Amino acid sequence: MNYAGMTRANAPARIDMRSDTVTRPSEGMRDAMMAAEVGDDVYGDDPTVNALQDKVAAMLGKEAALFMSSGTQSNLCAMLGHCARGEEILTGRDYHVFIDEAGGASVLGGIMFAPMPIAEDGSLDPDDIDRTIKPDDEHCPISTLLTLENTWHGRVIPQDKIHAAARRAKDRGLSVHFDGARMMNACVKLGIAPADLVAEADSVSMCLSKGLGAPVGTVLAGSKSLIRRAHRARKLVGGGMRQIGVMAAAAMYALDHHVDRLADDHANAIRLGDQLRAVDKLHVDMDVVDSNMVFVDMPKGSSEPLQSYLRERGILINAGEPQMRLVTHLDCGADEVDLFVDEIRGFFA
Ligand SMILES: Cc1ncc(COP(=O)(O)O)c(C=O)c1O
Question: Is the shortest distance between the CB of 291 and ligand 1 below 6 Å?
Fold first, then answer.
């Protein structure tokens, strides 16, 4: 994501394709939030949070889980839970934990990152993992953790590639953390149960506030001992929240009602890509439209004027130069896609 080109909304937009994080809670979700039983979660007293944590732990096939405020906080607490100072995390060169989370593990944990090349499909090469792991030598940091990510920029990485990378790391004694900000998109696309998608991972961050449509929240799942350490890290970063069952109820609602419908977002992304590639001057590589993101190449110099043209018409996008990323979601369905394409045709005409 190129945050330099990030567009801010001054008013609610008619169509917002900047991200799947922009969704607003539906009426059903708001009702669930209103009805939530709550308690003080720092005391472990919030029944809705406890129910959410149990549900996600079971869903992901892990021993325990912990509700976090965001994906960044969840990944950070996982990394702090897995690694000590002087240890090292292997990850993809442009995976979110390395480039988009303010270097938290290094800043707060004295942990190094060893970024690796990423294949076109978003996967890591097991041989690169072998080459990157440091020898047992006092000159070197101690390679402790591999982090994976799926989906990656909307790409759904094939399960055999995830399996191969995780296996290689584990054979070499590393633990594996899975950044599953949009893992349900991958599950729906691949037709795989969540527990199977992350079977190799020692810990998993699963976001509720992206395609699943909750206003806030990520759940970190893993072994009891890892979650215990992550809980301490969450305290350290001020992440203990009180009557947060209101938000956990939204997350529960999202898991109960918004998983299967991710297939609609994927279908709408294809609808969008197919229509845009018929527009003169635009190029869309449909081979990379695996889930809810579409990347469109535009003529040089069109990013700024296009964004203002659309903003005047109540449409928000994030466009870098020369590519825009468009995201379909709960509040951006087939009608919005068609309206959007009409406006794009107008601009490029
Ligand atoms: C792959 C990935 N991981 C982690 C995050 C961080 O999530 P949050 O914005 O909730 O901190 C994001 C955010 O978009 C993401 O795309």
Answer: no
Phi then psi for 328, rounded to 5 degrees? -95, 150
Run of H or E including 91: strand 87-92
Q: Is 177 in the pocket of ligand 1 (CB under 6 A)?
A: no
Residue 20 CB less than 6 A away from ligand 1: no
Q: How far apart are CA 290 and CA 157, in angstroms?
A: 9
Interval between CA 135 and ligand 1 midpoint (Å): 32
pTM above 0.90, yes or no: yes
Report the helix count and the strand count for the chain, using DSSP H and E.
14, 13
Is the sign of the CA dihedral 64, 72, 83, 114 positive or negative? positive
DSSP 3-state assignment of 165? helix
Q: How far is the centre of ligand 1, averaged over its atoms, from the C-alpha of 72 (Å)?
A: 6
What does the block give as tokens for 61?
A: 């096939």
Distances 68 to 56, 199, 220, 244, 279 between C-alpha atoms, Å: 12, 21, 7, 10, 42
User: In angstroms, rounded to a whole number, what is the distance separating the alpha carbons of residues 22 and 16?
Assistant: 7
pLDDT of 9 > 90? The answer is: no
Of 184, 176, 245, 179, residue with least CA distance to 213: 184
Query: What is the number of the ligand 1 atom nearest to the C-alpha of 218?
Result: 10
Domains and CATH numbers, the chain: 3-24+261-348 (3.90.1150.10), 36-257 (3.40.640.10)
Comparing CA positions, the residue from 215, 198, 308, 189 lying closest to residue 29 is 215
Task: Tell me the pLDDT tens digit for each residue of 144-175.
Answer: 999 999 999 999 999 999 999 999 999 999 99
State the SS3 of 209-259: CCCCCCCCCEEEEECHHHHHHHHHHHHHCCCCCCCCHHHHHHHHHHHHHCC
CA of 150 from ligand 1 middle (Å) equals 11
